[in-house]
Every structure is written in structure tokens, then in C-alpha cells.
Design brief:
Layout (H helix, E strand, L loop, with lengths): L6 E6 L2 E9 L4 E5 L21 E5 L16 H14 L6 E6 L2 H11 L4 E7 L4 H6 L6 H13 L11 H10 L8 E6 L10 H15 L5 E6 L6 H4 L1 H21 L1
Parallel strand pairs: 3-4, 3-5, 5-6, 6-7, 7-8
Antiparallel strand pairs: 1-2, 2-4
Helix pairs in contact: 1-2, 2-5
Protein name: Alpha/beta hydrolase
Keywords: Hydrolase
InterPro entries: AB_hydrolase_1 (IPR000073), AB_hydrolase_fold (IPR029058), AB_hydrolase_sf (IPR050266)
């Protein structure tokens, strides 16, 4: 992880957050990790990522070196906090959001609430609202039992984002339409073992990934053939290549506007 930018901590609205700010120029690329994922999870994209613009990574409350959440982490809470962080550290729009897994929900909501500040979104094996609403029905008895044991021995924090995921999905449904901005969806192409995800679950997941690409008329989908849920770890060059093309597409879209 030697290429990771130096991180710092800052208080934003009474919440201490760890972040890094690197690179330069436009756009400002904002990295939104999956649930529980610290900023170190992006390390394989550096230092090449810094060549594409200004880059912001950060730990959401209760993750990595950021302090525990002081209030329930609804989607609106998180994007308001993120926007305040970006202002506090001098990161300027336009923002190109990169949302991995659960971070895809936050990228989805941010783009709807602040379309004038968002120039593009890269959904990276991202969670869609329908994943939250529908995927649990595909759990096997074993998966349900394991989840129940984990909840018993390590009860979830009622303030964390997973505990508030249904509220976040409702906020997305009530938000304005997704803007007509460039969108790239990167989906892992590896089929998971059936004990991890049934074929029905995997087919549902594919449909939901395709739906993310259809959020914008400027959406497209890329398959990371050698990856499952973490293309940024298994195929960083695929992610960097798709992101470089997306940056170019955002520049063209802004000129057209």
C-alpha cells in the first residue's frame, strides 16, 4: 500500500472523518467504498488514479480510522456529510463518483440530489435499490443461519448504514430522477459457487446491474471477466481503463451542455 496518499482526520459537523486528497485538476473523483470498507481498499488503483484528476477517498463513520457514527446513517445523512467534507477540504465540483458495492447507493442518491455538481458515476459492482429489496429472498437456509449467528454474537450498530438500508432505498425512490450524465457500470464476470449465491440470485443481480446502466441514456456496462465482487483488487487495470474513458466522456458531455 506504499502508493496510497497520506491520510488525515478532520471534524465535519462534529463527526471525525479520515480522508485523503491527492492528484490535481478536474474532475474531482470521489471514491465511495462498500459497507465497512476503509480507504485502503482502493490501494491497487494508485498512483495511476491520481493522473485522472483530483482524488478524494474517505472512511465513512464507524469505518477505518473515522469515529463511530453519532446518528443513524441514512443515505441523506451520508451524502450531506460527504458534501460538507468536500467543501471543508477544498475539493471542488464537478464530482465524478465511484461507488463500490453499498457505496453505489450513496452515489445514486448524491447524483439525484446534486445533479449540477455531479458529472458522472462509475458503479463498481454496485448495490442497486432492488438488490436491497429483493436479494435476501434468495438466501439459502445455511446463509440465513450464519447471518443469524453473526447478529447474535456481533449485534449490528443501529446507527450503521446497513441497519438503515431500507430508509436509504426509500430516499432514492423519493428523490428526483437520475440525471442524464455519463454512467459506467463495472460488473464482475465470475460466477459464484452455488453455496454462496444461487443461480436465481445471480440472474437477479445481473438484471439489477443492467438496470443501473439504464439510469442514464449515457449509460454503459463493462464486464470484468476475471473478477467477482472486487474488480478494483483483482483487475485494477480494467477499472482504471473504464474510469479514464468515463473521465473523457464527462468532458465531452460538459462541452455539449
Amino acid at each position: 500500500m506504499k502508493h496510497l496518499p497520506t491520510s488525515k482526520s478532520i471534524a465535519v459537523g462534529g463527526q471525525v472523518l479520515r480522508f485523503s486528497l491527492s492528484g490535481e485538476g478536474s474532475p474531482t473523483i470521489v471514491m465511495l467504498s462498500g459497507a465497512g470498507g476503509p480507504l485502503e481498499g482502493w490501494y491497487r488503483l494508485f498512483p495511476e488514479l491520481d493522473k485522472l484528476g483530483t482524488v478524494v477517498t474517505y472512511d465513512r463513520p464507524g469505518v477505518g480510522a473515522s469515529a463511530r457514527a453519532r446518528e443513524p446513517q441514512l443515505g441523506t445523512t451520508i451524502i450531506l456529510q460527504l458534501r460538507a467534507l468536500l467543501r471543508e477540504i477544498g475539493a471542488r465540483p464537478p464530482f465524478l463518483l465511484v461507488g463500490h458495492s453499498f457505496g453505489g447507493l450513496h452515489a445514486n442518491l448524491f447524483a439525484r440530489i446534486y445533479p449540477e455538481e455531479t458529472c458522472g458515476v462509475l458503479f463498481l459492482e454496485a448495490t442497486s435499490p432492488d438488490d436491497v429489496l429483493n436479494m435476501k429472498r434468495y438466501r439459502s437456509p445455511l446463509q440465513r443461519a450464519v447471518a443469524g449467528l453473526l447478529d447474535r454474537f456481533s449485534p449490528p450498530d443501529p446507527n450503521d448504514e446497513i441497519s438503515n438500508e431500507l430508509e436509504t432505498v426509500a430516499e432514492i425512490a423519493e428523490a428526483p430522477p437520475f440525471p442524464d450524465i455519463p454512467v459506467t457500470v463495472i460488473s464482475g464476470g465470475k460466477q459464484l459457487p452455488r453455496w454462496m449465491a444461487s443461480l436465481d440470485a445471480q440472474h437477479e443481480r445481473v438484471r439489477n446491474q443492467e438496470a443501473l446502466a439504464r439510469l442514464s441514456p449515457l449509460g454503459e456496462r463493462v464486464i470484468a471477466k476475471g473478477s467477482a465482487h472486487f474488480p478494483q483488487m483483482s483487475e485494477p487495470l480494467v477499472v482504471l481503463g473504464a474510469l479514464e474513458k468515463l473521465v473523457a466522456r464527462t468532458h465531452v458531455a460538459q462541452v455539449v451542455r
